[in-house]
């Protein structure tokens, strides 16, 4: 079968292809002269299946899309507490290259604006690292995230350095407040080399999907980040990833995202998908015009808005049936707090006949910790009331059958 998804993606691109709104970045020749008509869209699922349409294999510089990943690397290397000492977590509502620090503690307000990203870059590989070793560490992580060896666009990087006055003044400001310790020039060189790494839209979709899985690169299977690090990174992307357009973005699209000045844009749906687009013309916040349009459409048509209530509605209890002396309770879906509450509510209000209870979890896709704890506690209490209780769990989704009192749930091998 020819999968229908690439055709759908190509169709989405056709809808925005003729929109020539916005302006390519023009502060260096390499970005000014890049073909503004390039257009690409790629998706990578948490199972590692990649789909792309348009110019999905054309390379461009990652720019600010590196920021969430290097923030994740710093969290992973140093822990959240040490990273919090140099950068905050609040949205700034300011332009990406604003010379701004928090009034109270002089830290950059978040890691997605340049001030925050330069401070975070300096944490990588320790305070005494050379620029080369630090950048190599960064290039190595981004390469593993992409699943291929990424290179640096040296010419573009040189041009950036020649016009880096603004980032240099940010670095001087950070150094004057003791947030960074390297020479301002070295700090900007290290950050600019980070931004000059070449990626494709396909690479970005896979990198973004690695945040969606909670840190396992879904194509190579390599664990690169912890799930706590990914969760925090996505939280910061959702509040600050689109700079001063972040609030409007979250309302309209509802996907944690990050944009870059070369025209790339990523979005990450935890547990589901990494999405990436490429189109160089930018709006006044520095976000890709057609990229934003594509995301708006995908969010609407594919039902991806994270604040939408519709994907959380499967009740935990599928059925309760009586069979001779036993009552069979069939569960289904993902058992989180709300599903478990539904199960306990049903168990409490249903008149349970017979003396035997069988809990069939063969249709449960997963339990979270709270769901598991609540369901087991419900069973334990029913057992205390005199019922014989057993679990039918052919796939082992419950994983841990110990009750809160140290006893264990009985299991059955088959449903009779
Ligand atoms: N290299 C660019 C800068 O620091 C990256 C900014 C961006 O992508 N928004 O100015």
TrEMBL record:
Reaction(s) the record says it catalyses: L-glutamine + H2O = L-glutamate + NH4(+)
GO-annotated molecular function: glutaminase activity
Keywords (A to Z) from UniProt: Acetylation, Hydrolase
Domain of life: Bacteria
Binding site for substrate: 64, 114, 160, 167, 191, 243, 261
Residues covered by the STAS domain: 328-386
Biological processes annotated in GO: glutamate biosynthetic process; L-glutamine catabolic process
Gene3D superfamilies assigned: DD-peptidase/beta-lactamase superfamily, STAS domain
EC top class, as a word: hydrolase
EC number(s) given by UniProt: 3.5.1.2
Subunit record text: Homotetramer.
Family from the record: Belongs to the glutaminase family.
Protein name per Swiss-Prot or TrEMBL: Glutaminase
Organism of provenance: Corynebacterium marinum DSM 44953
Gene coding for it: glsA
